[in-house]
C-alpha cells in the first residue's frame, strides 16, 4: 500500500503513481488531499482511515485463502 499526501513537496504524487505502476496490480495507491510529506501527522484521521481500510481488505483476502 502507498498512502501519499497530495501536496507532498519532497516526493510528488507522480512518483507515487510510477511506483504504483511498477509494483503491479497488487499495489494500492491512495492519495490524501491537503496533506504533505508527513501526512500521518498532518491528517492522522484520514491516514488511519485509509490504513484501516487496507488492513481490513488484507485480512479479508487472508480469510478467503484459508477457507
Summarize the structure.
By secondary structure, this protein is mainly alpha-helical. The chain is built from three helices and two strands.
Question: Which characteristics define this entry?
Answer:
AB_hydrolase_fold; 57% helix; mainly alpha; flat; AB hydrolase-1 domain-containing protein; two-stranded parallel sheet; 67 residues
Helices, strands, pairings?
Layout lengths: L1 E4 L7 H11 L5 E4 L6 H4 L1 H23 L1
Parallel strand pairs: 1-2
The figure for the number of domains is: 1
What gross morphology would you assign?
Answer: flat
What would you call the structural class? mainly alpha
Q: How large is the share of residues in beta strands? A: 5-15%
Describe this structure in words.
The protein has 67 residues and is mostly helical. It has one domain (2-63). Helix content is 57%, strand content 12%. The chain is built from 3 helices and 2 strands, in the order E-H-E-H-H. Strands 1-2 form a two-stranded parallel ribbon. It is flat and about 45 Å long.
Amino acid at each position: 500500500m502507498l498512502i501519499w499526501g497530495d501536496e507532498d513537496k519532497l516526493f510528488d504524487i507522480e512518483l507515487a503513481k510510477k511506483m504504483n505502476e511498477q509494483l503491479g496490480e497488487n499495489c494500492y495507491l491512495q492519495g490524501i488531499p491537503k496533506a504533505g510529506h508527513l501526512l500521518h501527522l498532518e491528517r492522522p484521521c484520514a491516514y488511519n482511515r485509509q490504513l484501516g481500510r487496507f488492513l481490513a481488505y488484507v485480512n479479508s483476502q487472508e480469510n478467503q485463502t484459508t477457507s
